[in-house]
Amino acid sequence: MSHRPDSSLSLALAVVASSDSPLLLLDGELRVIAVSTSFLRAFGIDRDRAVGQPVTALGDGEWAVPQLTSLLTATLSGAVIESYEMDLRPPGGARALVLHAQTLDYGDVDNPRLLLSVSDVTEARLTAQHDADSLKHKDNQLREKAILLREVQHRVANSLQIIASVLLQSARKVQSDETRAYLKDAHNRVMSIATVQQQLATTSLEAVMLRPYLIQLCQSLAASMIRDPHQLSVSVTCDDSVVDANVSVSLGLIVTELVINALKHGFPGHRHGKILVDYESEGEAWTLSVRDNGVGMPKDAEASKPGLGTSIVEALANQLCAGVRVTDAHPGTAIAIICSGLTPLDAAPRPEPTTQAL
């Protein structure tokens, strides 16, 4: 090893010794020619006990790692080794290292030189692991909260259904036709909220796919309000829209109000018919419509006065920055909730005669 360094090697020795990064300059026998002060300080090694020693003899023997010897030998043979990860286990505790090895070309093939840079990534690995553990803990907490929230939603829906049943029983017992009508309307309102709540409990808490949501909602409404499915039916057409859970609640309540209204007023005398719920969107704009082929809008002005359902639908539409448009479908009635995606669309003037009260 008693080679007089030429000017290039002298420069390399000076650069290594003064480097702020942990560096080792090795010869062809993997002995240390030069070592940076930062390496000595980082790994608690004496310079006098490093220079001239095999790299595997550094420290208390913790550098005698077979993978390290194989890495350096392969580099001397011409392999390019970058970002090789290795665990070092000194007495003070394990450390995670990233190694980069490369040969230096001096034009002297008989005396190869190898530069080894060492990066200690122990803290970064611990931080990453801590972040991963924290993220996993947060995910577990969110999952638990989601389960609890769904359970609450189910219980709220069940409670609302019980209240609706009590209202219906009360309606059957009272003598006053007016009071009976009010109780039945209250029953329908509670059932509509219960149905939406029940369907929401089975969907995602953040994003809701509208097609299965509306299909399940209308199936529930039909099962609870249509005695003969051969007489009346409710069908849904919907694109692949996905909306926020809060938006789905408003849309679900609107659909529930309009479907209940159509079932209540559109098919008197056990008429046969169909109700179609349709939703389509384009960008930020969307249209929700409920159309039936029933008797259509009433002819007398008294029956056409807006009811509670009308106020509910219009209020929900306003929350969604949408307008309500009512038309005579010939036969039946078509009600559309239209959002332009830019500004709230003013409800179009109702034609004469207007729709039946919801």
Automatic annotation (TrEMBL):
<keyword id="KW-0808">Transferase</keyword>
<dbReference type="Pfam" id="PF02518">
    <property type="entry name" value="HATPase_c"/>
</dbReference>
<keyword id="KW-0418">Kinase</keyword>
<feature type="domain" description="Histidine kinase/HSP90-like ATPase">
    <location>
        <begin position="246"/>
        <end position="344"/>
    </location>
</feature>
<dbReference type="Pfam" id="PF08448">
    <property type="entry name" value="PAS_4"/>
</dbReference>
<dbReference type="InterPro" id="IPR035965">
    <property type="entry name" value="PAS-like_dom_sf"/>
</dbReference>
<keyword id="KW-0547">Nucleotide-binding</keyword>
<dbReference type="InterPro" id="IPR036890">
    <property type="entry name" value="HATPase_C_sf"/>
</dbReference>
<dbReference type="InterPro" id="IPR003594">
    <property type="entry name" value="HATPase_dom"/>
</dbReference>
<dbReference type="Pfam" id="PF07568">
    <property type="entry name" value="HisKA_2"/>
</dbReference>
<dbReference type="InterPro" id="IPR011495">
    <property type="entry name" value="Sig_transdc_His_kin_sub2_dim/P"/>
</dbReference>
<dbReference type="InterPro" id="IPR000014">
    <property type="entry name" value="PAS"/>
</dbReference>
<dbReference type="InterPro" id="IPR013656">
    <property type="entry name" value="PAS_4"/>
</dbReference>
<keyword id="KW-0067">ATP-binding</keyword>
<protein>
    <recommendedName>
        <fullName>histidine kinase</fullName>
        <ecNumber>2.7.13.3</ecNumber>
    </recommendedName>
</protein>
<keyword id="KW-0597">Phosphoprotein</keyword>
<dbReference type="GO" id="GO:0005524">
    <property type="term" value="F:ATP binding"/>
</dbReference>
